[in-house]
TrEMBL record:
<dbReference type="GO" id="GO:0034497">
    <property type="term" value="P:protein localization to phagophore assembly site"/>
</dbReference>
<dbReference type="GO" id="GO:0032266">
    <property type="term" value="F:phosphatidylinositol-3-phosphate binding"/>
</dbReference>
<dbReference type="InterPro" id="IPR001680">
    <property type="entry name" value="WD40_rpt"/>
</dbReference>
<feature type="compositionally biased region" description="Basic residues">
    <location>
        <begin position="24"/>
        <end position="40"/>
    </location>
</feature>
<dbReference type="Pfam" id="PF21032">
    <property type="entry name" value="PROPPIN"/>
</dbReference>
<keyword id="KW-0853">WD repeat</keyword>
<protein>
    <submittedName>
        <fullName>WD repeat domain, phosphoinositide interacting 1</fullName>
    </submittedName>
</protein>
<keyword id="KW-0677">Repeat</keyword>
<dbReference type="InterPro" id="IPR048720">
    <property type="entry name" value="PROPPIN"/>
</dbReference>
<feature type="compositionally biased region" description="Polar residues">
    <location>
        <begin position="426"/>
        <end position="437"/>
    </location>
</feature>
<keyword id="KW-0446">Lipid-binding</keyword>
<keyword id="KW-0472">Membrane</keyword>
<dbReference type="GO" id="GO:0006950">
    <property type="term" value="P:response to stress"/>
</dbReference>
<keyword id="KW-0072">Autophagy</keyword>
<feature type="region of interest" description="Disordered">
    <location>
        <begin position="426"/>
        <end position="447"/>
    </location>
</feature>
<dbReference type="InterPro" id="IPR036322">
    <property type="entry name" value="WD40_repeat_dom_sf"/>
</dbReference>
<feature type="region of interest" description="Disordered">
    <location>
        <begin position="15"/>
        <end position="47"/>
    </location>
</feature>
Amino acid sequence: MEVYPWVGRFLQPMGSGTAPARRGAGRRRGGGRSGARRRARSMEAAAEVPAPPAALSCFSYNQDCTSLAIGTTTGYRLFSLSSVEQLDQVYESNEIPDVYIVERLFSSSLVVVVSRAKPQQMNVYHFKKGTEICNYSYSSNILSIRLNRQRLVVCLEESIYIHNIKDMKLLKTILDTPPNTTGLCALSINHTNSYLAYPGSATSGEIALYDGNSLKTACTIPAHDGPLAALAFNSTGSKLASASEKGTVIRVFSIPGGQKLYEFRRGMKRYVNISSLVFSMDSQFLCASSNTETVHIFKLEHLTDSRPEEPPTWSGYMGKMFQAATNYLPAQVSGMMNQDRAFATVRLNVSGQRNICALSTIQKLPRLLVTTSDGHLCIYNLDPQDGGECVLIKKHSLLGSGKMEENKENDLQPPLPQSYAATVARQSTVPSTSTMPGYSEDGGALRGEVIPEHEFATGPVCLDDENEFPPIILCRGGQPGKAKRS
C-alpha cells in the first residue's frame, strides 16, 4: 500500500460547530410571575414546533453509480445504492451549511464539498474520520468538480484547474477558456484514459478534449451547431456523448480520435434543456434526461457496414426504398431519417424539475435511477432485450430520516497510541490548528495548508480499511510547523 505524506501533514479534525445565538434572545423582560408563566408557555410551544426540513440544493452520483450524494441547506448526506427496497444513508454532516457541490470518490471516504458561504473554496474531507484533508481557494466561484483515481478537476467560469489527487498538487491551470457559466465539463472515470472534455466555444458546439495524464490538448471535436449543454464519457473513456442547448440530437464520438459513432434523436417537436447524460457501465446504453417529463434510453448497437437483409415482404420492400431515397435528399433531411430513436423511455409524474439519471446494476438486474430536485429517488426496471416503457418499482425520499449504515470496523480495531494519529482518528472539539496560506507553483490556486501542532506518528498508521482510495495514511515526514511539498 502506498503512503502519502501529505495526508499526515494536512489532516485535521473538523470543527464541531456551535449553533448561533438567536437574535434578541434574553432581551424580553417579564412582568413578575405572569410574565414568567407566559415565557414558560411560549418556550414550551416553541419546543413543540418541528425544525424546518432541509431543502435539497444539489445531488450527484459517484463515478460507478453505487452511491448518491446530496447537498442541503444544512449540510450533505451520502447514500448507498446497493438495494432497491431500502435506501441506506451512509453518512450525514450538518456542519457545513448551504452545500451546493458534493462529490464522492467512488465508494471511498474521500468527499469534496463546496458551500455557498465560501463559493471560492474547495474542501476535501475524510468523512469516516470526520476530518478535513485540505482545502484550496480560487479566484472566482467554483462551478463544478470532477474526480477519478488520478485527477481532481475544478471548473470555474473561465479557467480549469487539474490536481493530482494523490497529493493534491496543482498540476495544470487551463486559463482563458470560453465563458462556461454552468461549469460544464466531463472527466473520464478510467484513470488510464483520463480525458477531460469541456466547451471549446461559447457560441458553437465545439468540444475541447484534454489528456489529463499527459497534460496536453488531444483534439477538438465539432459536435453541434449550437452551444453545448451536456457531456459524458463512458466507463472506459473510449466514447464521449454530447448534446447541445437545443436538446434534440445526441451524438457519440470515439475517443481520442473524435469520429462520430452514433447519432440519436430525442425529439423534433420542441427544444429542451438536457440536464443529464450517462452511459451504462458496460457502454451498451445511453440515458438522457431533461426538463420534460420523458427520460430517453438509447441502445448502442454494434456498428456494421450494412443493415441486415429485410424479409421479402411489402414492409421490407418499402424499407429498401426509403433507404435508397436518402441518397437523393438534402444532407439535413437524410441525416434526420437515419437517426436512431429511443430504445426505452420513462414518463415522470411532473415536468420542469431538475433531475439526474443513472444506469446501474442493482441486485443483478439493470435499473434506471432518477433523482429529482423535489428530494426523491425513483428506481425503474429496464428490459435490456425489448426496451419499451420502464416500470417504476420504488420511490425513496431523500430528505426523510434514512437508516444509518454505520461502519463498525473501528470498534474492532485495537486502540491507537496517544499520538497525533490517535488525536485525529477520533472526533475532537478542540479548535482547529492554525492555517498558513500559500500559493501553488504556478500561482493559480490559493492553498490553505493545515499545519498540525502535534508530533507525527513514529510509523505508518492506517486510518481506514484497505479498500480506501486514496489510502488515507499517517506517516512521519518533516518537522512540525513546516509544510513540505511533494
